[in-house]
Design brief:
Belongs to the LysR transcriptional regulatory family. The chain has a 5-stranded mixed sheet with strand order 4-3-5-14-6, with helices on one face. A 4-stranded mixed sheet has the order 8-11-7-12. The model has no long low-confidence stretch (mean pLDDT 88). The chain folds into 3 domains: 82 residues, Winged helix-like DNA-binding domain superfamily/Winged helix DNA-binding domain (Arc Repressor Mutant, subunit A, Orthogonal Bundle), CATH 1.10.10; 106 residues, Periplasmic binding protein-like II (D-Maltodextrin-Binding Protein, domain 2, 3-Layer(aba) Sandwich); 98 residues, D-Maltodextrin-Binding Protein, domain 2 (3-Layer(aba) Sandwich). It has 11 helices and 14 strands.
């Protein structure tokens, strides 16, 4: 018995996504071709793998059983490819990566040409979004994330710290006044990502201050918070890799510099659980980790 590996991969994605059309689109297959490939796999196995209705699909008992075997088969093949690539020195294959839009634009995008110059046989699919993606469901090999990861089965590796600071433009502070204590922040327009956000701050005596702040506008894009802060719309809390050059140039001023942000944010690389890190994933991660650290040093090393 022989399997078309694409059909095997397609079946696993259909089972993961619960949608034939979406799974087929990931492979560039039409709806008709996707259905034909699944039917060919069922014919090869002589079992029914999927229950299909006009509204949904589900796995049959045989489909549930075969799914585990299919995943192991694909993992074994990928492990073999990884071992061979390490022996031959050739890194190849499709690599799907996601990162936040602001971070990706500054820390990843500028270095992609150099990476592809070193590894011309890698096909990179880079998705920049501030929406947290389920990388297992969506089939990503690697994600760069910032902040608290929370409990997860994903494999996480710390890449660098992500120090943050409260900042405002000189013209805003001249107009609205300079906060002297954390409590003063409640009287200011604060640029946030949530309607009523809590900023956790700690002073030099190690006393913690939890301040509920708000502003007339919220936004999910970190760059927008920096842009609005530069425009004098209020006080923002942002990563130093975003604000370092503006602080040096005097376009932004630290607010409550005697306070530290208690969020203890980190920059992480996360990947789906698995037995081996594929050669293309390791090559990309090692390459970008060095560039991320270099970029951060250039952005704010003299400010902390």
């Amino acid at each position: 018995m022989s399997f078309d590996l694409k059909n095997l991969q397609l079946f696993v994605r259909v089972a993961t996504l619960g949608a034939i059309g979406r799974a087929g689109a990931e492979f560039g297959f039409s709806a008709t071709n996707t259905s034909q490939r699944l039917q060919a796999l069922e014919s090869e196995l002589d079992v029914k793998l999927l229950n299909r209705t006009t509204r949904a699909i589900s796995l049959t008992p045989d489909g549930e059983l075969f799914l585990d075997h299919a995943k192991h088969i694909l993992e074994d093949i990928e492990d073999a490819r990884t071992a061979l690539s390490r022996t031959s020195g050739t890194v190849s294959g499709k690599l799907r990566v996601t990162a936040s839009a602001s971070f990706g634009r500054s820390h990843i995008v500028p270095f992609v040409p150099d990476f592809l110059g070193l590894y011309p046989h890698v096909q990179l699919d880079l998705n920049l979004t501030d929406t947290v993606i389920d990388i297992v469901e969506q089939g990503y090999d690697l994600a760069f994330r910032i902040g608290d990861l929370g409990p997860s089965s994903l494999l996480a590796q710390k890449l660098d710290d992500d120090p943050r600071m409260l900042v405002a433009s000189p013209k805003y502070l001249q107009r609205a006044g300079i906060p002297q204590s954390p409590a003063d922040l409640t009287d200011h327009a604060c640029r946030t990502m949530q309607p009523r956000e809590i900023w956790h701050l700690i002073d030099r005596s190690e006393t913690m201050h939890d301040v509920r702040v708000s502003g007339p506008v919220t936004v999910s894009l970190g760059d927008a918070i920096v842009d609005w802060t530069l425009a004098g719309l209020g006080i923002g809390k942002a990563s130093l890799w975003q604000t370092g050059e503006h602080i040096r140039a005097g376009r932004l001023v630290p607010v409550l510099p005697q306070m530290r942000d208690l969020s203890d944010s980190k920059i992480w690389a996360v990947r789906p659980p698995g037995r081996l890190m594929h050669a293309r994933v390791k090559a990309f991660l090692d390459f970008m980790r060095a560039r991320i650290i270099e970029t951060n040093k250039a952005c704010y090393a003299d400010l902390i």
